[in-house]
Amino acid sequence: EQYGNYYLSRCIFGAINFPKIELLEKNKGNFIKAKLFLFKEKIKDVFKTSLSKEKSAFLAGITIGAREDFSKEFKEKMSLSGTTHLVAMSGYNITVIAWAVGLVFASFFSNAASFYLSVLTITLFVLMAGAEASVVRAAIMGTIGLFAIQAERLFNPRNAIVIAAFIMVLFNPRVLVFDVGFQLSFAALLGMIYLSPVLKNALKIKSKGFFSWKENAVNTLSAQIMAMPILLSSFGFFSLSSLLANVLILEFIPITMGIGFVMAGLGLFSSFLANFFGVLANILISYEFFIINIFSRFSVPLKIDSVSFYFWIIYYLAIFAFIFMSLRSAQQCGAEKQSIIL
Fold first, then answer.
1. Which residues neighbour 47 within 8 Å (Cβ) at sequence distance 6 or greater?
2. How far is CA 52 from CA 55, 60, 70, 266, 295, in A?
3. What is the pLDDT of residues 14-50, one digit of tens each?
């Protein structure tokens, strides 16, 4: 079954065809989740009043993780263009939430109270978004970042990602093997943390470039290199043209997210203000849809039916060896420069 492993990660061990379903009771579920889902629907309604159906669904996807309104055709376009990850909840969503609520709470409460209220808000946001692996990982790392600020310590992303993985696996060990979202989220982030700086040094990239295209290219390439085995093993498909698509679109996604969050906040009080920001969102999303449509038509797919597990082990060992040798070479070069100066 296509989603068998995902079901296993959620402790679902079987499926029933043509079950008999009978409604026994209503409004007996978790009260907090019910209110959060109701709030989520209100946000989606705000987007729908300002944008077309497909664009409002896209904005809801990149801001609050609501992808249920995506059409089958649009999902196929994102898959072919290699941009499906855009609607996966990420650290930017958590950063925006943490910054916004932290700013508000700091105006009324002490630093300690503001910290706990921010963590509570992030937790509620994760529950509202569906608690997918990527957003849970981002939330844990974001909470560690807030704690570092509260304790006046430096935030180390390498330590934070290890702690996030440990907590998630401790809570549900099945995600390590059966949850592709968990695997892709950590693989991509590890690529950006460890491989990206090495590639920048190897390619002698010193600046971000116009619209940060150089930085986006290296980060995307690093994430794709680390995630490619998982994508091929799980879906048998990888878009080689996705690098260019992401370079052209990534710089505008955080801006679109930010406008979306502003729309969601203002739309609860004033539809006029929400519509104003909706115009800006419409312009950005139109461009992003243009890129997705172009690269879905001119996709360069890499398809592999099956590859030996040992091949992927060698693949990752080669990457780790490359990172290790590059870092060691950089340290030796730094030591030599220091000795010359002395």
1. 56, 59, 60, 260, 263, 264, 267, 278
2. 5, 12, 12, 19, 22
3. 777 777 888 877 777 778 888 888 888 898 999 998 8
Question: Which amino acid appears at position 114 of this protein?
Answer: S
Q: Which amino acid is at 185?
A: S
Q: Which residue has the tokens 């061990």?
A: 13
Tens digit of each residue's pLDDT (9 = 90 or more) over 166-206:
998 898 888 888 788 888 888 888 988 899 988 888 888 77
Q: At what angle do helices 111-129 and 31-50 cross, to 10 degrees?
A: 80
Give residue 289's pLDDT. 92
Largest CA distance in the chain: 81
Distance of CA 328 to the CA centre of its chain: 31
- Per-residue pLDDT of 71-117, as tens digits, reads 888 888 888 888 887 777 666 677 778 878 888 888 888 888 888 89
Percentage of residues in the chain with pLDDT exceeding 90?
Answer: 9
| C-alpha dist (Å) from residue 300 to 122, 184, 190, 217, 231 | 38, 21, 25, 17, 15
Alpha-carbon distance values, 328 to 157, 221, 325, 332, 342 (Å): 20, 22, 5, 6, 21
Q: Dihedral, CA atoms, 93, 94, 99, 104, nearest 10 degrees?
A: 100
> Which candidate, 213, 227, 298, 285, places its Cα nearest to that of 255?
285
Residue 251, both tokens: 């710089």
DSSP assignment string, 256-309: HHHHHHHHHHHHTT-HHHHHHHHHHHHHHHHHHHHHHHHHHHS--EEE-S---H
Residue 63, H or E segment = helix 53-64
Q: What are the residues whose beta carbons fall under 8 Å from the beta carbon of 175, sequence distance 6 or more?
A: 9, 133, 168, 169, 182
Specify whether the CB–CB gap between 169 and 126 falls below 8 A.
no
154 phi, psi to nearest 5 deg: -75, 140
Closest-CA residue to 2 (of 260, 255, 246, 234): 234
End-to-end CA distance of the chain: 65
Residue 211 has a pLDDT of 64
